[in-house]
């Protein structure tokens, strides 16, 4: 299996009051906010500050692997989830408009093994990346 380059990013915990506010606002059980050090040359994002997934595309993958749409979305860890467009349209889009805001599509996100890790349990389950690879290989034929 090819190794995926990674890096460590130094962070510090934000004020408890900020974490409490976000936790309450989002209705989460607990949220701990962290901030990247100002002098860091690295960030917590890969190529772009936003990762967008299309709910219609996610539904197809969820059906293949037997997960719910929510479980599958959680595996991809996106910042934004769009709906109302055909499945996999995001693969060829140059721009997306979300609530009137124009987002430039920089590139497809290369999926790593992280989507195999169930964020609720920490258990690695490979079926999602296997299904995604199989789907993409059929697409190239």
UniProtKB/TrEMBL annotation:
Domain MOSC: 23-141
InterPro entries recorded: MoCF_Sase_C (IPR005302), Pyrv_Knase-like_insert_dom_sf (IPR011037)
Designated name of the protein: MOSC domain protein
Origin: domain of life: Eukaryota
GO molecular function: catalytic activity; molybdenum ion binding; pyridoxal phosphate binding
